[in-house]
Amino acid sequence: MEAARALADLVEISPQIEAAAVVAADGEMVGSVGVPEGRATVLARAVRELVDGAAFRSEGRVTQLHAELAGGDVFAVTGAGERTIVAVTGERASPGLVFYDLKRCLAAVADET
What we know:
Elements: H1 3-13, E1 17-23, E2 29-33, H2 40-54, E3 64-69, E4 72-78, E5 84-89, H3 95-110
Helix pairs in contact: 1-3
């Protein structure tokens, strides 16, 4: 499934997700939904830096990341192909559900390759 369609499906089935994007291993944006014009590159770079930066605490790669912010949360999941999906949610999002939905969406995008 192409990234744009998978992300559109994601925000439709998971109303707590306000914006989401898929970022390739090289930091290029694969697709996004709900990300303001001109902010996609900033988001792509930030999520790669977060995931790469979090890896300093681990021998392996980071597969999940959850950051709580004042007005909501940011979640990221890295898949086997080193693509990362990132989502921005409102307050009180259920981490388990968000991670599940992100993994399913990332798997759907991976199936396109």
